[in-house]
Structure formats: structure tokens, C-alpha cells
Amino acid sequence: MAALIVLGVIVLLVVVLVAKSVALVPQADAAVIERLGRYSKTVSGQLTFLVPFVDRIRAKVDLRERVVSFPPQPVITKDNLTVSIDTVVYFQVTNPQAAVYEINNYIVGVEQLTTTTLRNVVGGMTLEETLTSRDSINGQLRGVLDEATGRWGLRVARVELKSIDPPPSIQESMEKQMKADREKRATILTAEGHRESAIKTAEGDKQSRILAAEGAKQAAILTAEGERQSRILRAQGDRAAKYLQAQGQAKAIEKVFAAIKAGKPTPELLAYQYMQTLPQMAQGDANKVWMIPSDFGDALKGFAKNLGAQGEDGVFRFEPSADGGVAPKPEDDSAEVADWFEAKTDPAVAEAVKAAEAVARTPVDTSLAPDPSLTKGLDLGELSARQPETGPLTPSMDPEQQR
């Protein structure tokens, strides 16, 4: 029985010795090994054999990059405002021996160093600079921390300010300021919109008036030109009508005198015709009294003696002259006045009408400047310049006819 107990104790001691002499260190971890209380070596990611009761693992250190978020820290800015800042530090242990022997707790050391450095950096900035200079603050913190933690076997990769919380009163003031700025921008934009609208309206009114003035100008030109052509044509028609009327009256008088001479009138017939005409001469509101000359018979007798010859019965009668009693014919001027009765349209007038119709069908241009095509073909100066090619707007007349 005693032998079994001794055997059991021996087996237990062997197991303890084996457990004390073998250590498995995972990858990305580092084990700091001491021999008799002094640093011996650092192992990582391997199976390690230890001398029982001589060697021991002092500490295991995680070699991966660590992310540590520190609680909000009150920091006073340059303009004496207290802000609460949260920080996040990314660091990695590069020297496990230094991390174990150079500092008691490197995480607490990083936290305290971050707090003091943050207060030093932010203390030289105003609140507005602090809120708008995150990258600058992050860079300064990383530089100071990386330099200070290098002897601890740490490498600071990145420092970020997670949040910057000003006091509630300051936040309320900032919100009011931002609201005022937004209202200011809205008012400015509204004023700009009204200004642009007024400018566009004025430009449209200006353009409308320009187009209306151009239209009135062209209408006045066309009206004046049409009235001029109308007067010229009407004057030519009146001239031709008067000429035909005078020609007709001459023919009528010629026929009447020829008939009178052919009928051989006597003084009694002339007296009878004169008496028939007297009532017509006396008609009218202004004719109250009509005087008949006393020597009326003697006047008729002298008129008969001048126009006729006394016959055997003592009565004066008209006798045809040697040329048959026919009055000489007037000079033939039909060739000279032939163009007075021309009914064709003047080519220049037709061209002006055609140009006016083309302008009337032209769409209105919306640009500010009047379209030059609106006045093409309608300017009196241009029409006058084309007169040598197309002829004057008035019908051709020689100088005597124009006078």
C-alpha cells in the first residue's frame, strides 16, 4: 500500500515537471521568459521547453495592433471654453521586453499621455479652430505619442478624435448662428431671384418695345410708300381721264357744230333755242331777277350775218365753205399719250409689295437686337439705289408730261 502511494506521488511529480517544462506560445503572442528572476528570452509562435523551477513566463504580450478608446476628457480651449473630447488610439507592441520592463501598464500610460498631450494641443486653439482642425490635432497627437512611447516598445499608428462636444449653451448659440446664416443665405438667394426676375422682365419689355418700334417703323414706311404710289397712280388715272374727257368734249363740240352748219339754221331758230335756254339760266335760288337785253334782236341779226348769207327771200342762211364746211381735224397725239392708258403694274411696285409680304411672313426674332432681315428690301434708300436697274417707282413720263 505504501508502495502505491509513493508511486502515485512520483507520477504526480513527473506530470507537474512536464507541465512546468513545456509551454506553447500561440502566433501573434509573445512570451517573456525569466530565469531565476532575470530576463532570459522572448519567444513567439512556438513550443518552448523550460527548466522546471528555474525558468518561468513573466508575461504574455499581444503583438497585434490594438484599438483603445478612452473616455471623454474635459479640455479647456484658448477662449476659455470647456469641451469634452473622446479619443481613439491605434498602437502596436513592437518590443515585448520593453513593454514588460519599461512601464508597469502601457495602456494606462498611453491614456494619460494622450490626455495631457490633447490638453496641451487644444489649449492653444479656439473652439472654432478645434472644431475645424481635427486632422491637425490628430497629427500632433500621433507625433508626440509615437515619440514618447517608443522607449516602451510601442508604435502608435493613428490617433483619432471621436467626438468634440462643446457645452450645451455653446451648442445652442452655434445652432442659432447656423440658423441665422441659413436664413441670411435664403434671403440673399430670394433677393437674387427677384433681381434676376426684374432684369429678365425689363429685358423682355425692352425687346418687346424694340420689336414694336421696328414694326411701326416698317408699317409707316410701307404705308407712306403705298400712299405715294397710290397718289401717283391716281394722278395718272385722273390725267388720262381728263384727257379722254377733253377729247370727248372736243369730238362732241365738233359734231354739234358740224350738225349746226349742216342744218343751215336761221336767226328765228337761234332765237327759239335761246328762248328755250333762258328758263334754265334763270333757275337757282340766287337768281331773283333776270334781265333780257333790249337789243337782243339786233344781236341775233348780227350773229346771222356773220355766219350765213342772205337768200332770195331775204333770210340769212349758213353756206358751206369751199372745203365743204368741215372744220380742220386736230393733230393726232395718240402715240404721245399711249402710255397714259397702260394698265400693267409697275415692276418696282410689284417688287416692293412682294418684299413687304415676305417681311410680314417672317417670324419674330426673340433676340435683343432687331433682325437686319426685317428691314431688307424695305429701306427707301435701297429702293432708290435700285432704281437704275428696275426703273423708278413712278410710271415713265417725259419732262413735258411730268410738268
TrEMBL record:
One of its GO terms (cellular component) is plasma membrane. It comes from the Bacteria. Coiled coil: none annotated. It is a single-pass membrane protein. Keywords: Membrane, Transmembrane, Transmembrane helix. It is found in: Membrane. Residues 359-403 are annotated as: Disordered. Residues 20-178 form the Band domain. The keyword Zinc-finger does not apply. Belongs to the band 7/mec-2 family. PANTHER family: STOMATIN-LIKE PROTEIN 2, MITOCHONDRIAL. This is Band 7 domain-containing protein. It comes from Rhodococcoides kyotonense.
